[in-house]
Structures are given as structure tokens and as C-alpha cells.
């Protein structure tokens, strides 16, 4: 049974209790498949990118008809780090919901004039609200970008999370981990990759030679993943650095990190 996340962020846990390890976060509007229903409001779910875990059922919209319509019609994502959806298209209006970057909503066209700085959106529950037009972008169609454009945009997306705090299992500007950063940057540019810090055979990232590495490719380390920017630099969400930051592979560079530069296990690319 398919369902839609209606919480700002639905936590995905390793076990059906809120004190167990946080393994992922599923953002508002993202679909999940309910694999099993358990007691005490817990369900075992599978995400659209084939990650599995336990979350609270009351954070989901479970309605076959509404879910089917949402999957077809909700084709826009929040591009701002945080965005309030308001009851009216004016700053002084009451907030309906707060979204984080990557959340999915449905853009709707209403009768009557609307100031061009505002756009109307429909939530999964059917409510209509308004947010700044510049904070909304259409989903990138899967694998629709040219190689050069994809490389530019995926790096720019990863860099938009700079200074985001490190959060184990996190995937939003509130907190993000290393694979969360890379997978969200790819997802927002139309490519679904594995959510963990390793190359998985059934996903599009393939190992390439170090000498072929270009911007947007991924660097894998033991239990860690980063994105190559260019000029020896890479961006990553670093547990040791406490946030998303930039380091270098060049030992002469002030941002050099020997512990990572000397422990690369693979380079991954979709090209």
C-alpha cells in the first residue's frame, strides 16, 4: 500500500521505537510503500529509493485514491532551505506548514489574479496555501539533463547545504549526513542513487578510475562519501567537521585532510 509523508520530516528508524537509530528522513510529500503495519502506530516502509525502516503511521496519508493522484500531480519541490506555506498570499498571513528543501508539493492555478511573487500550492491533505514563487521549482525529469549541465547543477545543489549541521540519518537543512547530502543533491537533479556510503550494484553509480574523476562524481571512503567539486576540492557532510564543509585532496592546500585523502576506496560516477 502506498502512502505520502505529511509531516515536515518523517523519521525512519532501525526499529519500531523513537529511541532506536535514525537511519533516514523522508520529507513532506515523498511517497513510501507500507510493507507491514505494527502495533502502537508504527509501520515498516520502503521509500521510492528502496530504503527501508520504521516510521509512525500518523505521519503518513494512507489513502489509495489521494496517493495515486498525488504521485501523478505533485511535480514541484521546495528549493529554499526552509519555506512557510501561508493561508493567504501575503507576509502577514497565518502559516499552514513549514517545508524544508526537497519537500514535494503540487503547484495549482487558481482563478483570479495573483501577485507574481506568490504561487499557490496544494498539500497532500488537499489544503491550498501560498509561498514565494522563487522558492518553488519543477521536479527535474529523471535523467533529463546533459552531462555538463548535470555536473554543474549537482555540485551547486550540494554546495547549497554548506554549513548545515551534521545529523546521523539526516537529509535536510536542519541536519544532514554524508550520504544524505549526496543522495539529495542527485535526487533534486533527477537521479536516484543509493542512500548509503557505498556503491550498490542496482543503482546508477558505477566505479571509475581516479584519473577520470570530474565535478559531481563521488568519492568513497570507509563509511563516508563526498562529492568532488574540482581543483582537488570536495564537499561533504563531515562528522568530524560537525557540518557540511569543503576539504581538499592536495596536501599543500590549507583545507587538506590526510585522514580522508589517504583512505579513498573508490570513485563513483553515473557517466
Which terms would index this structure?
3 domains, endopeptidase fold (from Nostoc punctiforme), 271 residues, five-stranded antiparallel beta sheet, SH3 type barrels, mainly beta, six-stranded antiparallel beta sheet, globular
Structure notes:
Strand 18 and strand 19 form a beta hairpin. The protein folds into three domains: 2-72, SH3 type barrels (Roll); 76-138, Roll (SH3 type barrels); 147-269, endopeptidase fold (from Nostoc punctiforme) (Alpha-Beta Complex). With 271 residues, the chain is mainly beta. The strands form six sheets. The chain has a six-stranded antiparallel sheet with strand order 17-22-18-19-20-21. The protein has a five-stranded antiparallel sheet with strand order 6-5-4-1-7. The protein has a five-stranded antiparallel sheet with strand order 13-12-11-8-14, with no helix packed on it. The protein has helices at 64-73, 147-159, 178-187, 258-261; strands at residues 2-5, 9-13, 22-27, 31-37, 42-47, 52-56, 60-61, 76-78, 82-86, 95-100, 104-108, 118-122, 128-132, 136-138, 171-172, 175-176, 206-208, 218-221, 224-230, 233-238, 243-248, 266-269. It is globular. The chain has four helices and 22 strands.
Amino acid at each position: 500500500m502506498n502512502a505520502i509523508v505529511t509531516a515536515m520530516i518523517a523519521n525512519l528508524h532501525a526499529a519500531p521505537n523513537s529511541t532506536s537509530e535514525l537511519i533516514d528522513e523522508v520529507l513532506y510529500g515523498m511517497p513510501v510503500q507500507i510493507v507491514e503495519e505494527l502495533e502502537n502506530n508504527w509501520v515498516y516502509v520502503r521509500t521510492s529509493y528502496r530504503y527501508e525502516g520504521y516510521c509512525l503511521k500518523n505521519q503518513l496519508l494512507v489513502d489509495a485514491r489521494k496517493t495515486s493522484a498525488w504521485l501523478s500531480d505533485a511535480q514541484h519541490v521546495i528549493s529554499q532551505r526552509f519555506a512557510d506555506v501561508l493561508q493567504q498570499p501575503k507576509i502577514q498571513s497565518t502559516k499552514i506548514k513549514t517545508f524544508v528543501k526537497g519537500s514535494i508539493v503540487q503547484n495549482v492555478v487558481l482563478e483570479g489574479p495573483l501577485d507574481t511573487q506568490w504561487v499557490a500550492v496544494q498539500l497532500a491533505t488537499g489544503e491550498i496555501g501560498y509561498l514565494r514563487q522563487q522558492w518553488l521549482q519543477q521536479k527535474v525529469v529523471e535523467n533529463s539533463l546533459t552531462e555538463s549541465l548535470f555536473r554543474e547543477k549537482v555540485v551547486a545543489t550540494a554546495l547549497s547545504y554548506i554549513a548545515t549541521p551534521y545529523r546521523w540519518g539526516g537529509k535536510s537543512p536542519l541536519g544532514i549526513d554524508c550520504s544524505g547530502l549526496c543522495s539529495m543533491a542527485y535526487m533534486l537533479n533527477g537521479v536516484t542513487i543509493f542512500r548509503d556510503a557505498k556503491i550498490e550494484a542496482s543503482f546508477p553509480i558505477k566505479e571509475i578510475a581516479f584519473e577520470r574523476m570530474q565535478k559531481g562524481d563521488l568519492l568513497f571512503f570507509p563509511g563516508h562519501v563526498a562529492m568532488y567539486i574540482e581543483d582537488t576540492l570536495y564537499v561533504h557532510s563531515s562528522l568530524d567537521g560537525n557540518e557540511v564543509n569543503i576539504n581538499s585532496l592536495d596536501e599543500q592546500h590549507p583545507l587538506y585532510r590526510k585522514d580522508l585523502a589517504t583512505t579513498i576506496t573508490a570513485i563513483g560516477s553515473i557517466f
